[in-house]
Amino acid sequence: MTMEAAPVRAVTWRGLWLAPVVLGMTILAGTAIGETRLPFVTVLRTLANHLWGAGYPVDGIEAGIIWSYRLPRALVAACCGAGLALTGVVLQALLRNPLADPYLMGLSAGASTGAVLVTVAGLGGGAISMSLGALTGALLAFGCVAVLARAVSGDVGGGRATQAAAALILAGIAGSQLFNALTAFIIARSANAEQARGIMFWLMGNLSGIRWDDVGACMAVSVAGVALCLWHRRGLDAFTFGADGAASLGINVPALRGSLIAATAVMVGVLVSKVGAIGFVGLVVPHAMRFLVGARHDRLVPASALAGAVFLVAADVISRSLVPGQVLPIGVVTALVGAPAFALILVHGARK
Amino acid sequence: MKVELRHLSARIHRAPLLEDISVRIDRGELFGLVGPNGSGKSTLMRCLAGLQRPTSGGILVDDADLARMPARHRARRIAFVQQQADTTDRLTVRQAVDLGRIPYLSALRGWGRSDETAVEAALTAVEMTAFAGRLWHTLSGGERQRVHIARALAQDPRLLLLDEPTNHLDIRHQLSLMALVRALPITRVIALHDLNQATACDRIGVLSGGRLVATGLPRDVLNEDLLAEVFGVAATRHAAPDGSPRLHFSHAL
Ligand SMILES: Nc1ncnc2c1ncn2[C@@H]1O[C@H](COP(=O)(O)OP(=O)(O)OP(=O)(O)O)[C@@H](O)[C@H]1O
Ligand SMILES: [Mg+2]
């Protein structure tokens, strides 16, 4: 062993200062662009007025649009994008399956069922909000999936963890199908045409109803999610060669897997309950970021969170401005933009 | 590190994979495990690595119960090269070897000079320094195997478990790997299929149907009767030019 050691490699977070800048710019853009395009100056002045009472003269209606509608909407979009992308990162790393995302784990399906039960079937007689219904549904579905996965992989325990991951994915597929069927059943049974249309719209993701009340919870779960993933970045790295590989690198696999997946479930539950089931972000963004920054989680986690946030804010802007006078469900945009982008990244990556 | 297996049994779905295995491996010893396919070599390795809980009996490493050792603690002492482990992640050779330092890092303790030194030394030991920047999926099977071994060496273990490490290696790298393993000053357990390579071990254990049917010096254990009974082959022993015993296999019985 030679003692003239190589220089310690530079810290990998060199570009980190860019993240808040990019995120801030995106949110400003998301606030300025819309059906009525507002000048950046107005946006900045309105923000200054609200944040530190700067007292710039601005048009009251424009200020209202910016502060009460567009800004919370952009913030929630950013939080959801970051959160959903992180969920994909975590699930894909822990389950060693490139297709793992919140959809696959039954989380989105459960949230939909919960929301539909409350709004269409009138469960709780108005005492329960749609958000709470969706959150409960998501966690319930995830609980079912987890129990089923455990039953499938049985009492094997003791390191046969790779099979447990496969079992979880199969159980997730079964759970998703079941809860999607339940949702369809409830809509068919008791929704009138108007309700059905509304609910279909919500199922594809809808940011229209977002107000300041919703920002806190979304912000809390996504910031906590980023922090948790960064804290466990090495644990996530350790899964590179599978669960047994992680265990032999000193990771307590059941504990880490259990706690991170449960945290994921809560995060998705909260986010989906606010904005509906937005697909594609959790699947595509982590893959895209792996191509750009590599598979190491010290870079992948912040990059995915940032890219997810930017992607969803942009998708929201597009959903509001693509068809004049009409708002598209954001899930439609994420899929329309995400699918070709994903294909491009794949082709590009294969060439390298 | 001293390893002691006491009446170890392991089963999956009630099928017994290992039965009543007792053996003591001394500090610094190179212990070879041989046996036909499905005889339980990998299962025993997994038990030694702490990846599989024995159903009864136990393993003591330096007189401490392996089952009670915290995972992180264990990973600083015991490194394991699995029979097969692959990834679809895009990572470089160096990043794969870096993984071996995970037991020494924490969320707050970052990458340091000692980690760097360990990774460099491990890459050098398996002659993969020139490949450090290559992406994993561009490596050949043998190169991957050498990276796995480098990763295990980077863990700076006191017990190194190698499950058929010479698989996929060309003859030169087989020999240089065996020379590398023989030169390491730590306790090593190595599962092998090439019985002539096994003669390089200090002692060997022969597994058959989940039982340890023989242990001892390679030249005592690997005799014609055992080879016929356990492996089902007719073999003769003769001396190599350097005087060491060589096995010649003539046909399956
Ligand atoms: N998860 C499992 N479920 C059921 N049987 C298993 C399982 N894992 C291993 N076995 C069985 O246990 C026996 C021992 O397997 P093990 O992998 O330890 O063999 P081995 O000696 O390493 O063989 P090889 O030389 O082929 O690597 C085999 O018969 C195998 O089929
Ligand atoms: Mg084996």
UniProtKB/TrEMBL annotation, chain A:
Any idea which UniProt keywords this protein has?
Cell membrane, Membrane, Transmembrane, Transmembrane helix, Transport
Q: Does the keyword Iron-sulfur apply?
A: no
Q: Name one GO molecular function term.
A: transmembrane transporter activity
Q: Where in the cell is it found?
A: Cell membrane
Q: One GO cellular component from the entry?
A: plasma membrane
According to the lineage, what is the superkingdom?
A: Bacteria
Record's bilayer topology term: Multi-pass membrane protein
Q: Which SUPFAM superfamilies match?
A: ABC transporter involved in vitamin B12 uptake, BtuC (SSF81345)
- Which Pfam families does the record cross-reference, listed alphabetically? FecCD
Q: Which residues cross the membrane?
A: 12-33, 74-95, 107-128, 134-152, 164-189, 209-231, 238-255, 261-288, 300-322, 328-347
Q: Which family would the database say this protein is a member of? A: Belongs to the binding-protein-dependent transport system permease family. FecCD subfamily.
Write the protein's name. Answer: Iron complex transport system permease protein
What is the species of this protein? Answer: Rhodovulum kholense
Automatic annotation (TrEMBL), chain B:
Annotated keywords: ATP-binding, Nucleotide-binding, Transport
Query: ABC transporter domain: from which residue to which, for each copy?
Result: 3-234
Tell me the PROSITE patterns matching this sequence: ABC_TRANSPORTER_2
Classification via CDD domains: ABC_Iron-Siderophores_B12_Hemin
Gene Ontology MF annotations: ATP binding; ATP hydrolysis activity
Q: Which family does it belong to?
A: Belongs to the ABC transporter superfamily.
The protein, known as? Iron complex transport system ATP-binding protein
What is the organism lineage in this UniProt record?
Bacteria, Pseudomonadati, Pseudomonadota, Alphaproteobacteria, Rhodobacterales
